[in-house]
């Protein structure tokens, strides 16, 4: 970490308190936005490990306007990010803080189960990947290995990279734009320990790892500390993230190697020692769409191109307007209110 600024030097992080708003227009990267408002040190720590880390991406490429429009709005409407954050905290009052991390009591799979339960019988086709789409008149033909079926509208709830090949025949320009959205890969290692195997008390939700540290994890969430029911009594469940733009090929490593890297990371950060009582590896190849500079203009252009098709088509999923589950739900609700 860089040495603290000498007493008579400006403290970069606090410039935000006096800096005027940005006067120029145009999209900006996460790194440029944070550096401009809060200085180099905050940029390298906060922009890279927290903001870009959420997207497993590169802060010098990701668009702040597409990824964190709320921060852009804070500067636009209230000038200083620090003052705006303080005002927001005060306005929440002293009532019990609601955690920023929400989940479902029975795990995220219960969301899918609930959605499936609402579908009319016979409408769900599992293990039937769509191979191609074609238009006949104003209707769609959806081609799978089981043959073609006709529908009056299609909603591709797929990330841009997966939607692109399905559009290559009917909307080639839109397909090219979507295929050019970069997607990165990551791996998640879940390790369970008995509480006594940890030297550190888990007193937070997890951690993020700034670049340059001797740790191959990019971040960790302490699942059993965040939510009840995630581990048996006296045990903890830790989730470690590896890969992203920092180590693009990490997900291709064998399980043993990924587990070894996670164990080393947890030994260093929370003092985990001995063999974990549980270990699981989940790989997410080409799974995180990157909303880089130009992303919003690209998606708007795609929307205009598909609106010209003679049959009704919707594109709304992670990687179009946002990447998280709330973004995905918001987009779906705007199509199907
Ligand atoms: C490591 C990781 C951690 C994450 N953590 C969080 C988090 O903590 N909070 C959060 O809000 N979000 C998180 N996300 C993002 C979250 O996973 C996405 O927002 C969410 O999965 C998007 O849902 P979706 O239905 O749009 O797309 P997906 O979940 O990608 O689902 C698309 C589905 O379409 C299927 N498919 C692909 N091609 C075809 C085809 N041709 N025919 C038929 N089916 C096809 C795929 O198999 C897949 O099942 C995380 C993502 C990753 C990778």
Task: Describe the protein's architecture and organization.
By secondary structure, the chain is an alpha+beta fold. It has three domains: 12-92, protoporphyrinogen ix oxidase, domain 3; 127-181 and 291-335, FAD/NAD(P)-binding domain (3-Layer(bba) Sandwich); 183-289, Alpha-Beta Complex (Polyamine Oxidase, Chain A, domain 2), CATH 3.90.660.20. Helix content is 36%, strand content 19%. It has twelve helices and ten strands. It has helices spanning 30-38, 40-54, 64-67, 69-78, 81-92, 109-118, 160-167, 172-179, 223-226, 255-270, 295-307, 325-335, and strands at 132-136, 139-144, 147-151, 153-156, 183-194, 206-208, 219-222, 235-243, 278-289, 312-315. The protein has a five-stranded antiparallel sheet with strand order 6-7-8-5-9. A three-stranded antiparallel sheet has the order 1-2-3. The N and C termini lie far apart (49 Å). Mean pLDDT is 91; it is low at 1-11. The structure holds flavin-adenine dinucleotide. Flavin-adenine dinucleotide is lined by residues 129-130, 157-159, 162, 186, 188, 284, 287-288, 317-318, 323-326, 328. Flavin-adenine dinucleotide binds next to strand 5, strand 9 and helix 12.
């Amino acid at each position: 970490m860089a040495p603290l600024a000498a007493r008579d030097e400006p403290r970069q992080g606090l410039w935000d308190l006096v800096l005027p708003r940005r006067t120029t227009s145009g999209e900006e990267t996460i790194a440029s936005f944070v550096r401009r408002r809060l200085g180099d040190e905050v940029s390298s720590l906060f922009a890279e490990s927290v903001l870009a880390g959420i997207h497993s991406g590169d802060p010098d490429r990701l668009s702040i306007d597409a990824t964190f429009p709320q921060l852009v709005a804070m500067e636009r409407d209230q000038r200083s990010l620090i003052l705006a954050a303080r005002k927001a905290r005060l306005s929440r009052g002293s009532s019990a803080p609601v955690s920023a991390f929400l989940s479902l009591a029975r795990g995220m799979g219960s969301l899918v189960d609930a959605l499936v339960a609402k579908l009319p019988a016979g409408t769900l086709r599992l293990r039937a990947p769509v191979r191609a789409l074609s238009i006949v008149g104003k209707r769609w033909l959806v081609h799978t290995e089981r043959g073609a079926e006709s529908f009056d509208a299609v909603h591709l709830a797929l990330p841009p990279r997966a939607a692109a090949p399905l559009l290559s025949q009917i909307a080639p320009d839109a397909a090219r734009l979507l295929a050019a959205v970069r997607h990165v890969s990551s791996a998640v290692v879940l390790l369970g320990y008995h509480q006594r195997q940890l030297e550190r008390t888990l007193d937070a939700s997890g951690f993020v790892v700034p670049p340059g540290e001797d740790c191959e994890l990019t971040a960790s969430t302490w699942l059993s500390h965040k939510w009840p029911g995630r581990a048996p009594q006296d045990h903890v469940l830790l989730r470690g993230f590896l890969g992203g733009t920092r180590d693009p090929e990490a997900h291709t490593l064998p399980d043993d190697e990924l587990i070894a890297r996670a164990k080393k990371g947890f030994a260093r950060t929370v003092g985990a020692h001995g063999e974990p009582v549980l270990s699981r590896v989940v790989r997410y190849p080409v799974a995180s769409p990157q909303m880089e500079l130009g992303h919003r203009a690209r998606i708007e252009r795609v929307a205009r191109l598909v609106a010209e098709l003679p049959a009704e088509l919707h594109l709304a999923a992670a990687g179009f307007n946002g990447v998280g589950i709330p973004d995905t739900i918001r987009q779906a609700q705007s199509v199907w209110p």
